[in-house]
């Protein structure tokens, strides 16, 4: 199936999951995760009405943005960085992205704020939280969220938008829900501490319905739009 057809199906699935949760489909934004796919795939998706793209690997993303821009500078795209951030790579992220979902250290946040160019709006930021309790996964522990949220909210060139999580894969809808519910509770705790946010970035191709049931406002979907990834590319 084509990217355009896949997008129709993914949008339908989002609308269904939102309706089942008593939510408006327009409250859930689709972030198309285009990692490992080329500029041609991004342009095809953009021509089918998809304008927000997520990328994990910095150099790949910068090359792709430039290629897309050369072919179609007219497309109104927004770019979200969703991968691990090395502290010596913050400048190009601050200069080229609209959003960063994967902030998990104050030092990274400070550098992103310092390096965000004056001519651009503040960088929109989510804190990545480890809600599965796995040592290997990136993200801050739930009990570190408040302190990092306060630090980010105080930085002049960042805007704290919410929380992001990548839970461990789980097979069923019911097993997928608890970590998403945990992220929603953490967001409520931030609001209770005077740090209201509007974004829960959670849910991917295999678990977006459960994430939407628990309040996701951005789902990050790759495979269901672009097909299976080949990391050799
Ligand atoms: C790759 C990736 C996705 C998309 O995953 P799919 O299962 O292909 O939908 C979403 N979020 C992050 C952080 C990713 O790295």
What this model shows, in words?
With 233 residues, the chain is α/β, with parallel strands linked by helices. 42% of the residues lie in helices and 16% in strands. The protein contains nine helices and eight strands. The protein has an eight-stranded parallel β-sheet with strand order 7-6-5-4-3-2-1-8. Strand 2 (52-55), helix 3 and strand 3 (78-81) form a beta-alpha-beta unit. The longest helix is centred in the C-terminal third of the chain and has 20 residues, at 173-192. Pyridoxal-5'-phosphate binds at residues 33, 35, 56, 82, 166, 204-206, 220-224.
What topology does this entry show?
Elements: H1 3-20, E1 29-33, H2 39-47, E2 52-55, H3 58-71, E3 78-81, H4 90-96, E4 99-103, H5 106-115, E5 123-128, H6 145-153, E6 158-164, H7 173-192, E7 199-201, H8 208-213, E8 218-221, H9 223-226
Parallel strand pairs: 1-2, 1-8, 2-3, 3-4, 4-5, 5-6, 6-7
The structure holds pyridoxal-5'-phosphate.
Pyridoxal-5'-phosphate (PLP) is lined by residues 33, 35, 56, 82, 166, 204-206, 220-224.
